[in-house]
């Protein structure tokens, strides 16, 4: 099974750090999954404007295909101006409405204030519910103060929550194997 760990921004390093830690904990739980970190900054992204996907550049076509072919997802996002980044929303706009159906998804996020965790509840979860994803009930929200000045994750509580998230996520993957891919 392919797990796509998606870094939903093109700037900064905190979400990359969260994804790397999460990937490590998933592999600690089970080594039978093929994990891949997808950094949106590595793609020449185009604005999704409703054209058929084959009319976008090669990078957008590759990115959309990579995401749609995954069996499970960890979505990492910073919170900017009380919202998810436009790059992440743009990626979602390019996906088929059935691409993520009944596939497990866990969320890790980082923001500048403690209240920004509400963006996960009010913006990201509704998008994932539209896709009918199996969103794990536990997400991990981190704050700028949970990182060292060098960008290392230093908060033990966040690290422990990432470990728990990895365990729950793997259980959701196993559960999803018995579900239909279409309805």
Automatic annotation (TrEMBL):
State the organism named in the record: Thalassobacillus devorans
Q: What is this protein called?
A: NADPH-dependent FMN reductase-like domain-containing protein
Which segments constitute the NADPH-dependent FMN reductase-like domain? 1-143
Q: Which UniProt keywords apply?
A: Flavoprotein, FMN, Oxidoreductase
Alphabetical list of SUPFAM superfamilies matching this protein: Flavoproteins
Matching Pfam families, A to Z?
FMN_red
PANTHER family under this entry?
A: FMN REDUCTASE (NADPH)
Task: Output the superkingdom of the source species.
Answer: Bacteria
